[in-house]
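Appendix B. One record, verbatim.
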Amino acid sequence: LLKEAGIEFIQESKDFDEDSIIATSPKNFVYQATLGKYEANLKEFGFNDYPLLVADTVVTSQNQILRKAKCVDDARNILMTQSGNITSIVTCMIYQTPKQKIIDISQTDYLFDTFNLDDLEVFLDSEEWRGKAGACMVEGFCKSYIKDVRGYESTAMGLNVEVLKAFL
């Protein structure tokens, strides 16, 4: 996303364990996850030599936070929750330089058509769902099922580049 937006960057990161987060709302969850990453990366890298940017994303549908699937059955259940429904992708970013700090929470909503069960099984067999919030990427399997979009695609891909560029 940053390359496509013409933003130069160096990618380095310290991990943060999201499994410890307890949150009842998607916005609270994604903020806590981003803040945890921010604190870990700030401690490791600071922001004096380069700006610091961290972001995280959560997927939600039918009032459920859809985290990363732990197994194929979990992935199937997560995807079936989204099938034929509105799925919201909420992304939080924290961007900091010595002169400014930006915190943004953005949301993009997708209305999905009902997933074809044969297509779903092929996707599950591919294991492309592994490590993905909501077990899917809107630029992948879900793309052909999108009926309507409200918001920026970059938010759904993990970073609201449009908001970031406004501050750069």
